[in-house]
Design goal:
Length: 206
């Protein structure tokens, strides 16, 4: 996938994202972002394949991606969705460990791309990035842990209400069967709960 030229709108978004995690001057930030690799990934692009050793991490500026695994029976189980201003990193228990998940783009997506095996050297070249990267990763992990802990305690209907309140855009951006899988429901159960909550007008994509 070739690196894309950054549009002014994407450049502004990138500066604003970094600025929210840093007190660096805007002029300095703009100089820094010129060196950040940004790529366009088309819908359906597999970013990380289950069973492969992860080589890259990503930060979404625009777009949507899904994390899932395939169980022993060949069933896909969705474990997360990533949208704007979220990072995608598969954490394993050591180096050269196979990823238990796949990540695929659900939309054409523009992302910052980092090479995991070069991350340390990149941080040394741009030490001001180190704190920013750590904050981004920590924020993402905290959100994931909070969501997982909440889902364990919730009833199916509470999970749907939680998603409608926290991430309503997913109901119109991801296929219904994938959203149902993420919520631990069948597509039919998700439809029934939505109707019961008076949200049947939220049409998920096919």
């Amino acid at each position: 996938m070739k690196e894309e030229r950054i549009s002014s709108a994407i450049l502004d978004k990138l500066v604003n994202v970094i600025k929210s995690y840093s007190e660096l001057d805007v002029k300095v930030l703009r100089e820094m972002v010129d060196h950040i690799p940004v790529q366009l990934f088309r819908k359906g692009t597999v970013l990380i394949e289950q069973g492969d050793v992860p080589k890259q991490c990503f930060f979404i500026l625009e777009g949507c991606a899904r994390k899932f695994s395939v169980d022993l029976e060949g069933k896909e189980v969705t474990s997360d969705f990533f949208t704007e201003n979220q990072s995608i990193t598969i954490f394993t228990e050591g180096e050269n460990i196979e990823s238990p998940y796949s990540v695929v783009c659900l939309e054409d997506s523009i992302m910052i791309v980092g090479e995991l095996d070069e991350q340390d050297s990149e941080l040394k070249k741009y030490p001001e990035f180190e704190n920013i990267v750590l904050k981004l990763m920590q924020a993402g992990m905290g959100e994931l842990q909070d969501t997982f802990a909440s889902f364990i305690r919730m009833t199916p209907e509470e999970r749907v209400k939680h998603m409608m309140g926290k991430r309503p855009e997913l109901f119109t951006r991801v296929p219904g069967y994938q959203l149902a899988s993420y919520l631990g429901l069948t597509p039919e159960s998700l439809s029934r709960i939505k109707r019961r909550l008076g949200q049947g007008h939220l049409k998920v994509v096919d």
